[in-house]
């Protein structure tokens, strides 16, 4: 350290407090990075790495830097790479500093706490989430600093907690230090992979400390007054979020004004696999928004409306009254296309008020942000006027609760120019007429020469000295020069400054006052403009809660208009929501598939489920016929109905569903050591444990990850369980290629068989995409294989094997015929008293364990023995 300069010693002292961040160290017009930070940042940012002390005896110090006035893109790139950035500013004027300039970290930018647009996606929230476990309860607290949204909940088990974290999709996680344990890390791999992680020691989760943090943030509020009483573990997680906020932001976040709590019982629950299988917010194959339900439904014109719609999709309601209120609003807007167009035009001019409010409250807003706020607020009166005459209760509440914020709009209108510059310190921000002193300074700056010319003419007239001149130099400033021949005519208020050989130089109080103004006018203008801007920003920030409330209502209005627009464009119907068990859909369609551009017309289908005679539907039919599409569309229609949307059907009657479960497709989890079949069984187990009579279950090809007999047995037992166990007897759609399962309809009153119709023509199949009563007699796998392009020789051989299997034929000696081809001959039989078939029959019966034989195994055994006769 002794060999280092004072500046480098200062850098290292500050860096020691922020070891896991990249330190942006302000030096003049640049943020400099040194040592390991410089090496890492130069690689990520693609900027030149140089070094200090090249010519000295000391060690070379890697160095790189970025301009402070355009640092946002560089910070955004580092955050995208998962890094944290500590912003270290000069906290005193270098001109006044004695020795090294004082510096300190003013904030730390992390992936979960960014507020700048460059690092954010407009229609996606940017969450920081804390997860904490105590006494087998899991508390979650998550904050979007860019909008001020702060929510908490508690869950009863780890699986539910991990599913909720996956749904929320935080960019950064706060976890207890104990979660560094490898066993815990493996259990949490589904939520920690690819996310920034921060670990806190046990003392951060102290109950008293967390309550103090909450009281400090929310002006003395208690959990009870915040409506969060009864969620003790979630409040500890909330304390961890606030601790991190104070530690990184070096102050409070005024726009975070409340905590919103919610409970599982308030929403239709969706586990991780269901969200993935139904492609609610992203496609399975590419993880893209386009092609998902959200991508299809989103007709919003504001960023905050887009985020609100995603929240509605992720959290469908269980409150019938609230669902109907949303439906009423959508229906009224649907019936007025002209009004919808006007509302969309007005809303399209509304900027992201939530994030503008966040930046203003955090003192990081620019003058352009204030101008954007004013432009957005100016749209509110027009929006309120147009919805004022509507009857739907929700629309009336939105109108009444939307504050036009006329005072803020007027303040910004008077204070900020219409098109301010990006950089605050360059001036040109404050409007003319807002501040008297600023107007005078600007007049002096703009009209300096004109003022001097007018003053000179005035003094010539007053003194009668025609040769009088007003001049300026750097030593004396402004002065009045009079020849010695005219000295006797000078007024009494002239003050001598300098004597020359042929002239005298004077000043006057007026000239002195002007000099003091004009010499520092430009600097004073910039400083005064910045101070005035700060005053306007602070006055606006003080109304942050009002801005947030209006922003939330405008986002809701945007979603309702979007749903009405979608219903109009796609011909959706209003579903009848009820508290019974009957689920009835007439001419239902898959909302995403039907919109895809295809040469094949989408074929609608009817659905009827209840908890008595049509509780479990077995669906058979070939691959590619549309079984999965049909089942998914039923689930999506149900979900859309409970979020308050109209649905793709001619008519529908939907019961309140507490959970939707799906078991679809084949996937493994190598990170957890789970095979495809293990994943399938774990998902099935979760369904059988969690399903209730109010649930909707979608099962596609249960048991296909193992041998045929094992698979049939498991599928049969799962179907029986969902039918027979009244606690878990959910409305179920069960697609399968195991035709044996169709026999369940004979033994169970609530099970029905349906199949996807096809037509055979010329050894080919035509998919009719229509679901009809009855079970399918074939799976048509070979025909589908032909469509997929398998070689013709493989197709022919498969047909031969299938024929042998269906006939159950055996060759001489008891060997199955499928084992040989057309050109192969069977081995010669050996003579026996009873023959080979009789010996095989006896041996097979001898090995049967009758006491453990299941009904399905008994049926299979009878079939096998019959073929041996």
From TrEMBL:
Keywords associated with the record: ATP-binding, DNA damage, DNA repair, DNA-binding, Nucleotide-binding
GO BP terms: mismatch repair
Domain DNA mismatch repair proteins mutS family per the UniProt entry, residue ranges: 695-711
InterPro entries xref list: DNA_mismatch_repair_MutS (IPR005748), DNA_mismatch_repair_MutS-lik_N (IPR007695), DNA_mismatch_repair_MutS/MSH (IPR017261), DNA_mismatch_repair_MutS_C (IPR000432), DNA_mismatch_repair_MutS_clamp (IPR007861), DNA_mismatch_repair_MutS_core (IPR007696), DNA_mismatch_repair_MutS_N (IPR016151), DNA_mismatch_repair_MutS_sf (IPR036187)
Pfam family, one: MutS_V
CDD domains: ABC_MutS1 (cd03284)
PROSITE patterns: DNA_MISMATCH_REPAIR_2
NCBIfam families named among the record's database cross-references: mutS1 (TIGR01070), PRK05399.1 (NF003810)
Protein name stated in the entry: DNA mismatch repair protein MutS
Lineage summary: Bacteria, Pseudomonadati, Thermodesulfobacteriota, Desulfuromonadia, Geobacterales
Gene name, Swiss-Prot/TrEMBL: mutS
